[in-house]
Amino acid sequence: MSHQKTHEENHPDKGRRDFIKQSSLLTALALAPPALMKAADPGWEAEAPRLLEQPLNIEINGISRKLSVEPRVTLLDLLREQLALTGTKKGCDHGQCGACTVHVDGKRVLSCLSLAVMQEGKKVTTIEGVGTPDNLHPMQAAFIKHDGFQCGYCTPGQVMSGIACIREGHADSDDDIREYMSGNICRCGAYPNIVKAIAEVKKGGKSL
Q1: Taking burial as the number of CB atoms within 10 A of a residue's CB, which of 59, 64, 163, 203 is the most buried?
Q2: DSSP helix/strand/coil, 132
Q3: Rounded distance between C-alpha atoms, residue 129 and residue 59, angstroms
Q4: What's the total number of domains in the chain?
Q5: What is the residue-level pLDDT of the chain in tens, covering all 208 positions?
Q6: Dihedrals φ, ψ of 88, to 5°?
Q7: Are residues 151 and 161 in the same domain?
Q8: Same domain for 193 and 163
Q9: pTM
Q10: Rama region for 107: left / alpha / beta (φ>0; ψ in -120 to 50; rest)
Q11: Does residue 1 share a domain with residue 37?
Q12: Hey, CA dihedral for 168, 171, 144, 182, is it positive or negative?
C-alpha cells in the first residue's frame, strides 16, 4: 500500500491532474452564486476570503504585482476596487458596452467578463498606462482634437479599442473602423468624431 502511494505521488501526471482538479474547482466556485454557496455551508461567507483567495502574479502598466484575489473577482473589479485604477469604467457589466476595455498581452479584452485569476503571468495595460496629461498618447490627443467625447465616460474604453483597432489592422477605412469599434457604445453619439480621431492616428503611421 505504501509502495503504491509513493508511486502515485511521483507519477509524472500527478501535477497535471492536480492542476486540472484545481482549475475545475476554481471554475465551479467562480460560477456558483453566493446564495448557493451559503445554502451549502452557512459559514462559507466568513471563511471565504481565507479559503478561496488565490495568489496572482501579474504585470499592470509595466509594474509587476504579487496579489491575492478571490476566484470570482473580475479583472475590472480588481483594477478598480483593489488597485484604484478607476480609469477603466464599469458600464453595463455584461460585456456589451466596451467601457471596461483594457489590453491583455497587447490584445483588447472586456475586463468585466475576464476573471482576474485567469490573467496569471500576463501583461495588462489600462488607460492609465498609455499616456499622461503631460505626455498624451496619440490616440488621446486625436480624441481631444476631434471632440471624440462629450460626457467622457466611455472614452477610456474607446481609446483602448481604437489603439487595438489600428494594431489589429482594422482601420484601413471609415467602414472598417465603424465595424471593429462597434463593440464600444457612446451614449452621447460622438461616433463620427471617434472615427475621425482613429483615422487620423492611423494615417499618421505612429507606432502604437
Answers
A1: 163
A2: strand
A3: 11
A4: 3
A5: 444 444 444 454 544 555 455 555 555 555 555 555 455 556 555 555 555 799 999 999 999 999 999 999 999 999 999 999 999 999 999 999 999 999 999 999 999 999 999 999 999 999 999 999 999 999 999 999 999 999 999 999 999 999 999 999 999 999 999 999 999 999 999 999 999 999 999 998 776 7
A6: -75, 120
A7: yes
A8: yes
A9: 0.76
A10: beta
A11: yes
A12: negative
Cα separation values, 165 from 28, 96, 169, 180, Å: 34, 17, 6, 7
Closest CA to 87 of 194, 144, 159, 143: 159
Three cell numbers, residue 115: 476573471
Q: In terms of domains, do 125 and 144 share one?
A: no
Q: Give CA–CA dist 148/157, Å, rounded.
A: 12
Residue 200 has what DSSP assignment? H
Determine how many CB atoms are found less than 10 A away from the CB of residue 70: 19
Element (H, E) at 93: none
CA proximity to 147, closest of 196, 74, 88? 196
Residues 60 and 116 in one domain: yes
- Side chain identity at residue 194, one-letter code: I
